[in-house]
Amino acid sequence: MKDGSLAALVALGAFHGLNPAMGWLFAVARGLQERSRAPVLQSLPAIAAGHAASVGAVALLVTLTRSVVATRAVAIGGGVLLVAFGLWRLLSQRHFRWVGMRISLWQLAGWSFLMSSAHGAGLMLLPVLNAGAAPVAGHDHGLAAGTGSAVSAAVFVTAVHTLAMFAVAGAVAVLVYEIVGLAVLRRAWFNLDRVWAVALVGAGAVTLITA
Amino acid sequence: MALWKPDPTFYPSPRDALAAPPEKLAYVAAFDRAAAKPDAIAVLDVDPDSASYGGVVGWSELPNLGDELHHFGWNACSSALCPGSPHPHVERRYLIVPGLRSSRIHVLDTKDDPANPRLVKTIEAEDLARRAGYSRPHTVHCGPEGLYVTALGGADGREGPGGIALLDHTSFEVLGQWEVERGPQFFAYDAWWHIAHDVLVSSEWGTPSMIEDGVVGELLLGRKYGHKLHFWDLRKRKHVQEVDLGDEHQMALELRPAHDPTKQYGFAGVVVSVEDLSASVWLWHRDGDAWAATKVITIPAEPADAASLPPVIAPFGAVPPLVTDIDLSVDDRWLYVSCWGTGELKRYDVGDPFHPVEAGSVRIGGIVNRTPHPAAPDEPLAGGPQMVEVSRDGRRVYVTNSLYGAWDDQFYPDGVGAWMAKLDSTEDGFAFDTRFFPHGDDFRGLRPHQTRLQGGDASSDSYCYP
Questions:
Q1: Which domain of life does this protein belong to (chain B) (predicted)?
Q2: Which domain does A22 fall in, by range?
Q3: Residue partners of B130: CB distance under 8 A and separation at least 6
């Protein structure tokens, strides 16, 4: 994996972690409801786990496909899908719906998985997956080896991304819970959904151009 | 179009909402009892620094006749900040306005010209019936799965069960019936929730045939109107428990849950006890894992000469207070109680919800008293304080005087009139604002019902953070 890809992976993780909709806000809400910091801290791993499952599924799908199908075809197919999904996110007024504040940590992880998937969190990593995890020519020892390296590549990408997401979401959650207070939402909550959609379209474009 | 920053009228917590700026406009549902003129949303200037303060400055007529506008609500509110599905970049701009008699639901856009909301969509009674199986839409609340609209009646001429129809947040199409398992619930009226506890509460009035031609004496004395509260799982849409207040307590109407999302209690108003014509306010609360309700306020009937009473209550020789609306301030400190029969608006300190302390009372209108407004001391007033709405900062209280067409006619047979009043409320007490008294011809022959304040009010928003 190239340094640039690694940096991109970390940056995207931080971006996902920063988004209140990806979970830190839920962690803070659970803490405020119980008037205790413990639920904030307990919620964060569950949220990260759900996010990792969502991102990991996409990473695995892409790397496995790339191990059996021409890299270029995966890039073009994925890029087109990404641009289309991003445009839909940009233009649609629809938003993810969820009812329920009194949920277990397992349900919270499920919530995080659904939230991340609905936002296409994993899809956003497509350029990185494409650039970083290509099987090395001449060292292909058959399908089994290709699958093995694909899985390890997907695990690596997911782990690095999720760690960055977890660190940023955790820092923001604790900062907001302990010091800043939620009134900051009224001033500082920019429409990240729109930035997010643009990022999806951009990621798709990069993938297509470099295909 | 989505905003870049959260709608400025959304507040994460009730504490933050107390700091909201004062409203400049009030929207009031007004209806023509004769159904000869279209109903309208009247827009009132409530900015004390404005030259037209206290006047009707906008009038949005609806296209049809006989809708009987009643309650209404906003398309979006502070619950858009809730963490499960946050979407704070939508705008609070549409008023969702049901016709209680016609079963049509209107959508009015207040953005371009806030003083003249523009009709942008009408959901016909057939759509509500076909998709949700309901009629007579009543309360509107913005919530996690869309807009929750309570409805008193069933579809296709069926009396019930009444219940809740879910409307899409953005298209306002009827999505369907909210209930998955309604258990024993049949009557409907109001509904609201403890949003952070996944609990919905609903109350009971009666079916269309029990109300639309006036209160039916035999049914009332036979204790046939609603007298229960229902508790639901907001997530699973299932009935959890009913709490019977006792069948002498007829008509459990308005529900005002605590705004503080860590709390699980609220107040319900009961119109009349058939045993002594008193009215009451009940506190619902947790009792272990179950729900319970405790009567915390009783307001007795006032003796009166039978000759001064309308036929519907003349045999009793007393005026029932008829508590038809209550409203809880955003800080959960003050509860306002409308006594539409006796013409009194009471204020209680409910800082300790189990032990309300009366903290002020004003008289206006009333079946017997006909108390005038201080701004027009020679003008006896019919009707009484009815729909009551409190500003987010808790300093201003608005009341209108009409209850419901057919019932107005029974209790005020010589005409209910039309008026609206405003009170200024402080820690020490509350009193009429003599500069604010739109009445009579100001409402163009229509009767005013619910008030909604620009930017939200004490009964419009729910909060996910304490």
A1: Bacteria
A2: 3-210
A3: B155
